[in-house]
Each structure stands twice: as C-alpha cells, then as structure tokens.
Amino acid sequence: MKTLATFLLFTNIYCQAQSDILVDNRDGKVYRTVQIGKQVWMAENLPFIDSFTEAVCYGNDYNFCNRYGALYTWKSAMSACPSGWHLPSKPEFDELFKFFWGNKRTLYRTLISGGSSGFEALAAGYVNDYGFRGYHFYGIEQGGFYWSSSTKPSIAEARCVSFSRLKRVMVTRLKKRWLASVRCIRD
C-alpha cells in the first residue's frame, strides 16, 4: 500500500509539469517552457547573443549554440533573459529542487534532457578562463552549469547540474568572469 501511495504521489507531481512556448521579441526565436509547481521555466538554454552581450558558443562554433545555448559571463547573464523573464535566484532554484524532493541522483534523473520534469537540463560545458589568454572551453556533455542571480562580493553563485559519472545535481560557485549557461524563469 505504501508503494502504491508513493507511486501515485510521484505520478501526480510529474503530471503537474505543463509545457508552453515563449517568443523572444528581440529575435523572434521560439522557446519551449515548462510549468513546474508555481514556477514557469524555459525548457532549453538561452542562445541569445548580440553586440552588447559577453557570451559565446561552445568552441566558438555557432552549431553548439543551436543545441546547447550560449555561455555567458555573470554580468551578461543578469540581463540576458527576454522581457518578462529573469535570471533565477538561489531561492528559486531551491524551490525547483524541493518540488522534486529526493536525493541528488533523483534530481539528476528528473531534470536532465529526457527526464520526467520537462526541464531538459543540458551538459553545455563552461569557460573557466576569460580574458587575454582567450577562451578555455571545458565539459561539453560532462556538466551543465547554470548562473543564478544570487551573488557574493567576489563571486556569483551558480547551480550546477552535473552529468558526470556521478549523475547528481550539485551546487557550486563560479567566478563572475567565467562563462556558463542561462536558464530563465518567468517574472
């Protein structure tokens, strides 16, 4: 009986995720969105780059932006989301994670591309050194790092969805000059 109740609870939670679309008025791109609990998230990484944005495609290859989105500095990530959307805060990520309560491996299976949540997290990699030495790209298909708007004096907090052999969701901090993915949440 306990197993049946647990199954019904999980079935109810996963059925509450609803999909929709967002049209970015800056470039007309259409994005999939998903409602998870009371939050509405983009269901794909943001690939928007213009002349004012410090962002690149992985390996400087635009084909990667089509699949994985762009990688942004924290400063650019703060203003990268379309109108009516924003970079999520640490508490907003916490709410997402609490909705699918469970251990780090359960969250991994739920939030990854093809998982039951519709969030569709991708292992888009990151850039860990930005400046005069050029871009140093790491981690494509190994880890997905998502900026949050929460910050400390010298660093910005980012949520990390790890796709390594550990297969778990981890919280980490990244230096603001590094580049990571952006996933927007509705205002």
Which class of secondary structure composition applies to the elements? Answer: alpha+beta
What about the largest sheet? 3 strands, antiparallel
Distance between the termini: 41 Å
Mean pLDDT: 82
- The number of helical segments is 5
Task: Please write out the topology.
Elements: H1 2-15, E1 18-23, E2 30-36, E3 39-42, E4 55-56, H2 62-68, E5 71-72, H3 74-77, E6 85-86, H4 90-99, H5 104-111, E7 124-127, E8 137-140, E9 143-151, E10 155-162, E11 169-175, E12 185-186
Antiparallel strand pairs: 1-2, 2-3, 4-5, 6-12, 7-8, 9-10, 10-11
Structure commentary:
The protein has 187 residues and is α+β, with helices and mostly antiparallel strands. It has one domain (2-186). Helix content is 23%, strand content 30%. It is built from 5 helices and 12 strands. The strands form 5 sheets. The protein has a 3-stranded antiparallel β-sheet, with helices on one face. It has a 3-stranded antiparallel β-sheet with strand order 9-10-11. It is globular, with a radius of gyration of 16 Å. Residues 1-16 have low confidence and may be disordered.
Question: Which structural traits does this protein have?
Answer:
187 residues, 3-stranded antiparallel β-sheet, alpha+beta
Give a brief description:
With 187 residues, the chain is an alpha+beta fold. It contains five helices and twelve strands. A hairpin with a 3-residue loop joins strand 9 and strand 10.
